[in-house]
Structure formats: C-alpha cells, structure tokens
Amino acid sequence: MSMARSNARKAAVQALYQWQMTGQNINLIEQQFAEEDRLKDAQKSYFKELLHGVPEHLGVIDQALSQFVDRPVDAVDPVERAVLRLGVYELLFRLNMPYRVVINESINLAKCFGADGSHKYVNGILDKIAQIQRAVEIKAKAEAK
C-alpha cells in the first residue's frame, strides 16, 4: 500500500477521533486539517472519503461492530472506536481493498495511536467482521492456495 494512503488513514483516525470527542462539523475538521498542513504526505482524496464516509454510514458501521464488541460501541475506547470504525468502513465500502490490507493497516493505526495491546482487540474484531463481510474473498483466497 502506498504511504500516501497510509498517511491518509492516520490523519482520518485523528480527525474521526476529534469528531467523536467534540461533535464538530466534519467539513470544519477537514478544513482545519488542510489549513494546519496535516495532510502534506497524505492522499487527500482518500482522507476526505474516509472522513466523510464513516459518519455518513455510521449506523451500518456501528451495527457491524456491535455484533462483536464486548460492550456498547459508544463505550469502546475512543481511539479504538475511531480505528475500528475506519476499518469497518473499508471492509464494507471499499471492496477493491483486500481485507488483509484493511486489517493490517488498522492494526498499525492501533499500535500508533492506541493503548498497549489495543491492536490485538482491533485485529480480533475486524477479523470476525471480515469473515462475514468478505467471506467470498476469503474463500477464494483459500481455494487459490
């Protein structure tokens, strides 16, 4: 995966965290990130898609999460919640993105921003969602071996 896309995910997790904590308007957060030059090394179009896509599909994303998290989604640590929501968005709405890439990128985000061990939690949840949402892709990959 390109570093520009990984950097877009990093910025999107930070922006989504800010949105979750403050309830600020997504467009204002996007503008703030652009003005503060926080998207210099990021794929700006992908950052924008993630930042707007997660809130737009929040109901579907949180429904998928609620099947596997061990508490209400709103009670999940805010950093982990932002990472999980971004990962679920990609699993559900970016079918051209291999599920393993989505999970690996999410693990890296959890390692970067989350508490110790949060990457294991993120990995477990996203893997379970991928088993359902990407079953065809996973089966095809297994059969190709």
What is the CATH top level name? Mainly Alpha
Number of strands: 0
CATH superfamily: NusB-like
Written as H for each helix and E for each strand, in order along the chain, the element string is HHHHHHHH
Q: What separation lies between the terminal Cα atoms?
A: 22 Å
Q: How many H/I helical runs?
A: 8
Q: How much of the residues is beta strand, in percent?
A: under 5%
Largest sheet: none
Instruction: Determine the mean pLDDT.
Output: 95
**What's the CATH topology label?**
N-utilizing Substance Protein B Homolog, Chain A
Residue runs with pLDDT of under 50 for 5 or more positions: none
Structural class: mainly alpha
Shape: globular
> What is the correct CATH architecture?
Orthogonal Bundle
**Which range best describes the helical content: under 10%, 10-25%, 25-40%, 40-55%, 55-70% or over 70%?**
over 70%
User: How many structural domains does the protein architecture include?
Assistant: 1
**C-alpha-based Rg, rounded:** 15 Å
Strand and helix layout:
Layout: H1 3-22, H2 26-35, H3 44-56, H4 58-66, H5 78-93, H6 99-113, H7 118-133, H8 135-143
Helix pairs in contact: 1-2, 1-3, 1-5, 4-5, 5-6, 5-7, 6-7
Quick tags:
single chain; 145 residues; mainly alpha; N-utilizing Substance Protein B Homolog, Chain A; 8 helices; 74% helix
Descriptive notes:
With 145 residues, the chain is mainly alpha-helical. It has one domain: NusB-like (N-utilizing Substance Protein B Homolog, Chain A). 74% of the residues lie in helices and 0% in strands. Helix 1 packs parallel to helix 3 and helix 6 packs antiparallel against helix 7. The longest helix is centred in the N-terminal third of the chain and has 20 residues. It is globular, with a radius of gyration of 15 Å. The relative contact order is 0.13.
